[in-house]
Amino acid sequence: MNPRPYRLVSCTFLVLAVSLVAFAGDAERIRIYSENPRYWEYRGEPVVLIGGSVEDNLFQIPNLEEHLDLLNSLGGNYVRCTMSARDEGNVWPFKEVDGKYDLAQWNDEYWERFNTFLELTSERDIILQIEVWATFDHYRDIWDRNPFNPKNNRSYNAKNSNLPTKVNSHPLQLENNFFWSVPSERNQENVLKYQTKFVEKLLSHSLPRGNVLYCMDNETAVTPEWGKYWATLIREKAKKAGVHVETTEMWDPWNLDDPKHRNTFDHTETYSFVDISQNNHQKGQRHWDNAQKQRERIKDNPRPLNNVKIYGSDEYGHFGNDRDGIERFWRNILGGLASARFHRPPGGIGLNEKAQANVRSMRSLLDRIDPFHCEPHNNLLENREDNEAYCFAQPGSEYAIYFPKKGEVGLRLPGGTAIWTVEWLDILNSKWAQAETVKGSDSIILSCPGNHRAVLVTKDSS
Asked: Does an H or E element contain 262, and which?
């Protein structure tokens, strides 16, 4: 792996540079779209967020600019940003002094990498969804070398922090007191002090930027009080800075009916949007139904439902294969959800050639319709079997239908004398077939010729 030419600067200069970044006003920031709050608005325009990337903590990778340029060239505008330092070549956020970390001093290189990432994504209109606490950095071998581990720092010890020096279990076992430090739980002041410093440092870089969404954790199973504490702090800091930010939490259960998800769905005072990435473990019709049930449940108070991780790759297989990942990507967007991003390898297909084709094809389709006035409409499909086809439509005007594989369904139309244009999209090759026209009809038969096709049926306005 070739080292990236990081732009190293002195701490004094870095602080000055960050302070000189003008805060993006609310009109220029990522925010909930007022005309349709199931979607996002950025820089005054509604957006559907789609993407994929080779890694989750992109600010730590070499060749970052090249990777973002590739995503941008495909029409992608969405990446994940875990504040993680677990991989080879990564650096931790704290300064090392005489063999141990000082949690009161910063490693300038970490924060310069992060600030560069913020700058490069902002220049390309790419939205990043930050996960403040990288859950798996606090368990097993990663915890063994994490600066917050009391054996690795000079700021507290195991006794006065109440933190373990070894955690050999999966995060679901909840064996690290790190996530119970907040006042409403175990009030571990010696730890909370440095956790707060870290979050404030993060915000000193990210708050001026308008392209940032904030998620508290990754696949968490800890107390709801933990996420609530940090979401509240972030919102308060933003308010004090005169800006508005959007916050969420990511729970571990795959079933969106699990009570843990209610902490996000039901508490708009804390969380302004919902990340439902764990639903992307589900397959086929169940994947669609699980999301649509929640979409219906919040119809009286709709909010964006984000998917920052779409699992499924032939390389790993445990979460499904390439086909499953691609299907999930299309079901999410044609299901009226606000975002979809392919998870990094090996759990997802990242931004490999298949992912590139899907992002390019999705953007091409979205550019031909008005997704912000469309709704899921499988009810308009006749003789449809489970997982055969999915319809996203503005009835009477436009219909986008995704076929995971060969199939045939009828599409009900309003009848009359209208002429309809039918265009097929070969998703994996990002190619549109020659358009056909159909004169006034109550329904038309759509016969899908192969795997992963979309068809666009639009009313001819000529």
From this structure: helix 259-265
